[in-house]
Specification:
By secondary structure, the chain is α+β, with helices and mostly antiparallel strands. Helix content is about 25%, strand content about 25%.
Length: about 400
């Protein structure tokens, strides 16, 4: 059974009031009126079933059980479920709370999903934000910041000391920091300096306009969270821009369902070929969909950088329709009514979900001033684990929520 770290019984709303067996399924009625159906195969896979702890091996983790089915189901005096199985006269006991938390009815699955709060440029009136000192010392402030990143895909952290290396200290709160391909200092392999450097053939080392994009599209697994810490701001340009990819996808689906279908089903090749730190020419390539959806059609992630999309190598019948779909996607992406524009100031730090939020930068003149950011990434799964662990420790029931899978 799951370790609940408490022996509390289920609350009255989630007590089982009736249990019965129909056609090999167990049907339950709960005190709040909800109904659940549990299949025999599902119950046999549960921690309460004899042999459920068997290791994978020749016998299989999911062994065939011809004819084995629930025969009777009753609610115990403690409010749990007791099931009798035949053949074999097997008796199993399932905790009511465990059954409710793992119920897979349509209503239960919908209730477990943490909804994404889509946004446009109007979010500037009420930015999701936090304070550095509070987040560093207080678990509740940290949990609130985590929640804003989950809900909106980004948050702005204020009052971060404007000294090199601070971005990694903040990032460590969210999870593990992987090595970055274009880090300059071997002593800090996870940190990338974003400032003009003509000797480095990477777009972030230039001063031209950068269109909204997600980072590392050319890797099969995108960077998870991206953190950007401002050390020096340019006096005239270099504004950061953020776009909610979920808003773009929703509008594309409404405006042009055919384009949405193509970009969510047809994989494209993304690539990057630039000089690496040692002077050799890198050749990154990855295959992925621009819009990632789950099995039920819900958008879970965005992979997009127009400059990284390779020449299409698709069946002839798809070439023109896919190019047309990309044009439709970019028409929405370049709608500045969707752009949140921020002139980051020293001490401000952006945290972004790179599987959802696209970011870019306006052009600036390097002869008129310096712009210097430090960035690093955090593994997205690791962040989700950090959030669940902290939410559970702080008594926030949200730790049970199902989160967006991101780019797959």
């Amino acid at each position: 059974m799951i370790d609940y770290e408490t022996d509390d019984r289920p609350d009255r709303a989630t007590r089982i009031t009736d249990a019965s067996v129909h056609d090999g399924h167990v049907r339950l009625t709960w005190a709040d009126g909800q109904r659940s159906t549990f299949h025999a195969a599902w119950l046999r896979h549960s921690p309460s079933f004899p042999g459920s702890s068997r290791p994978a091996g020749p016998g299989g983790r999911f062994p065939l059980a011809p004819g084995l089915a629930p025969h009777a189901a009753v609610v115990t005096a403690a409010g749990d479920l007791e099931v009798s199985w035949r053949p074999g006269d097997i008796e199993t006991l399932f905790e009511a709370r465990w059954l409710r938390e793992n119920c897979y009815s349509e209503a239960a699955r919908a209730a477990r999903k943490r909804p994404a709060l889509t946004w446009d440029a109007g979010i500037a009136r009420d930015l999701p934000r936090g304070d550095h000192d509070a987040v560093m010392r207080d678990d509740d402030a940290r949990l609130a910041l985590f929640g804003q990143v989950l809900d909106h895909g980004f948050a702005l952290l204020e009052n971060v000391p404007a000294v090199p290396g601070q971005v990694a200290q903040v990032a460590s709160l969210f999870g593990l920091i992987p090595a970055a391909p274009y880090a300059e200092d071997p002593a800090f392999p996870g940190i990338v300096d974003v400032r003009v450097n003509p000797a480095v053939a990477v777009a972030t080392r230039k001063a031209h306009f950068l269109a909204p994009h997600t980072d590392t599209c050319w890797r099969q697994t995108l960077s998870g969270l991206v953190l950007m810490h401002c050390l020096k701001t340019h006096p005239q340009g270099g504004e950061s821009m953020l776009v909610d990819g979920f808003t773009v996808a929703a509008r594309l689906r409404e405006r042009d369902p055919r384009a949405f279908h193509l970009l969510s089903t047809v994989p494209l090749e993304f690539g990057s070929a630039v000089a690496s730190r040692d002077g050799r020419r890198d050749d990154w390539r990855a295959l992925g969909r621009v819009i990632c959806c789950d099995a039920w059609g819900e958008v879970t992630g965005i992979r997009y950088n127009g400059n990284s999309i390779s020449q299409l190598a698709l069946p002839e019948s798809l070439v023109e329709p896919v190019y047309a779909a990309l044009e439709q996607f970019e028409a929405l992406l370049y709608d500045q009514a969707l752009w949140l524009r921020l002139q980051l100031q020293p001490g401000q730090l952006l945290v972004m979900d790179n599987h959802r939020v696209l970011h870019g930068r306006t052009a600036f003149d390097p002869d008129r001033g310096e712009r210097h950011l430090q960035t690093c990434a955090v593994d997205r799964d690791d962040f989700h684990n950090s959030w669940r662990r902290l939410a559970r420790e702080r008594g926030d029931a949200g730790w049970r929520h199902d989160l967006s899978w991101g780019v797959s």
